[in-house]
Amino acid sequence: MHAHPKQRETHWKTLVLSDLHIGSRHLKYRQALDFLQKNSAETLILNGDIIDIRVLEKTTRFLVMHKHLIRELLAVATKSETFYVTGNHDQDAALIGGIVGGNVKMLREMIYHTVTGKKILITHGDIFDAGLRSSISPWKVRAITRCYYFVLSLDALSQKNFGWGSILSSIKRRSVKWQRYVTGFKNAALHYACKHDVDFIICGHIHVPEFCIKLERAYLNSGDWVEHSTALVEDFDGRWYLLDASGKQLDSLDV
Which has the least CB within 10 A, 4, 61, 89, 191? Predict the structure, then answer.
């Protein structure tokens, strides 16, 4: 008896994932695996920081644990036209290409057309950091990054042991500087979209899933899989959705 290939529950025109950080202890591995087992697409776009080379340079411990997720990701990729847009944690295209295989097209950014003919610019978003962080010294950036991952670890422990809400989300809501950074990032992305004369722009990078329309352009951010566990999808009628790990629609947009 031959085993039949697994049928995924939902098939989309386009699926956009970013910021999985495979290899990092902070990846919500089970949620990401379940999502990939239930969703497929004609076009798969991996929009940066999918495999965390920065972490793998220090340890491969969690990469071994995440091997089933990589296998599932490749299973989706083999049945899709797949693009890998590199981010700041996976800039080594040659190394990433060796992991994901030759059928995946490696890019720094890309233009994509929707079902309805709209033109999208897809970039991870780290290119906008130079202007936003120019006033912050490198040691402060490193310190903020360490604090971020420390609080992520606290979040995981507190939610597992005490069922508390997200400490990190609470800090972000109260931080004026963080809100200013997110607004600056979004504005930089929208001006970049205007410069390249596209209808909308898709980013990741800042781990803030969001849809908005400004400057007659749409800004979509696919979020991440260390805090929010979200993805972007396009259906066959050209409607875009922001989904959580369970497939619940968090937002939608007709473009």
Answer: 4
Q: Residue 73 is encoded by which pair of tokens?
A: 């990701």
Supply the pTM of this predicted model: 0.87
What radius of gyration do the chain's Cα atoms show? 18
In-domain check, residue 1: no
Reduce the DSSP state of residue 148 to 3 states and report it: helix
CA angle at 103 for the pair 40 and 65, rounded to the nearest 5°:
65
One-character DSSP codes across 78-145: HTSEEEEE--SS---HHHHHHHH-TTSEEESEEEEE-TT--EEEEE-SGGGHHHHTTTS-HHHHHHHH
Q: Which tokens sit at 83?
A: 């693009």
Q: How far, CA to CA in Å, does 83 sit from each of 1, 15, 86, 88, 105?
A: 35, 11, 10, 16, 5
Instruction: Indicate which CATH number applies to the domain containing 93.
Output: 3.60.21.10
The Cα–Cα gap between 235 and 115 comes to 8
- Token output for 158: 């507190």
**E strand segments, 155-198:** none
In a domain, 4, yes or no: no
User: How far is C-alpha 215 from the geometric centre of its chain's CA atoms?
Assistant: 24
Domain span at residue 231 reads: 10-254
How is residue 237 written in tokens? Answer: 């009628």
Residue 219 in tokens: 């800004």
Decide if 102 is inside a domain.
yes
Q: Is residue 199 part of a domain?
A: yes
Write the pLDDT tens digit of every residue in 111-169: 999 999 999 999 999 999 876 565 566 666 666 667 766 666 667 666 655 556 676 67
